[in-house]
C-alpha cells in the first residue's frame, strides 16, 4: 500500500536520504529503526508529502495519516477539537468513532491538550490521525520522552488498532527493542541509507543490531 523507491532528499548541501527504498503491504506492520540523525523523520515527512524528494518515487494506495514526532497538538484547544482537526478534509468530524476505539479519550474530551500527560497527548495524536479514517498509518517516534509503562500501553493500543482495523503501519522508532517486538518486519537506516532489512526475528539475532541498537552482547 506504500512504496518508496530510490528516494533522495537534500537539505542544502547535506544529503539526508540517499537512495532509500521501503515498502509496506496491506495490513502489515513494518518498523524503521535508526539512531538520531539517521534520516528517519526526513523519510516519514517525505512519505507524508511534507518534504519533496529531489529524486525517487512514492506510491500510496489508500488513505494515509501521519502521527508526527512530538505530538504537535494545539495545547490551548480541547482534546475534542484537536481530534476534529484530523477530519478537516472529510465530512464526518464527530470524534465519537475515535472514542469507540480509544475509549480513554472520551474522559479527556473537554480538557485542554496542553494539560495532559505525555502519554495522553500521544494517544490524542493517534486519535487525530484515525479521524482521517486511514488505511495506512505513519507513526514517528511513538515512545519519545515517555516512561516505559506508558510506552507499553501505547504499543498495545497500536497493536490492537492494527488488528481490528487492518491498518498498514509504518513505525519510525529510535527504540529498536520496541519496534522489533511490535513489528514483524523492519528496516535499519544509518546516515540516510538502508543498511539492512528483513524479519524482526532475524534482525534481533544479527550481531551488529544486537550491539548497536539493543544493547545486547
| N- to C-terminal distance | 36 Å
H and E string? EEEHEEHHHEHEHEEHH
CATH topology of the largest domain: Rossmann fold
Apparent shape = globular
Radius of gyration: 17 Å
Measured as a percent range, the helix fraction is 25-40%
| Low-confidence region ranges | none
SS class: alpha/beta
User: How many DSSP H or I helices?
Assistant: 8
Q: State the CATH superfamily name of the largest domain.
A: P-loop containing nucleotide triphosphate hydrolases
Short description, anyone?
The protein has helices at 40-47, 79-85, 96-101, 118-130, 148-165, 176-182, 200-204, 207-212, and strands at 2-11, 14-24, 29-33, 55-60, 64-67, 136-140, 168-173, 185-190, 193-199.
Question: What do these coordinates show?
Answer:
By secondary structure, the chain is of the alpha/beta class. The protein has 2 domains: 1-62 and 135-217, P-loop containing nucleotide triphosphate hydrolases (Rossmann fold, 3-Layer(aba) Sandwich), CATH 3.40.50; 71-133, no CATH class. Helix content is 32%, strand content 28%. It is built from 8 helices and 9 strands. Strand 1 (2-11) and strand 2 (14-24) form a beta hairpin. Helix 2 (79-85) packs parallel to helix 4. The radius of gyration is 17 Å and the shape is globular.
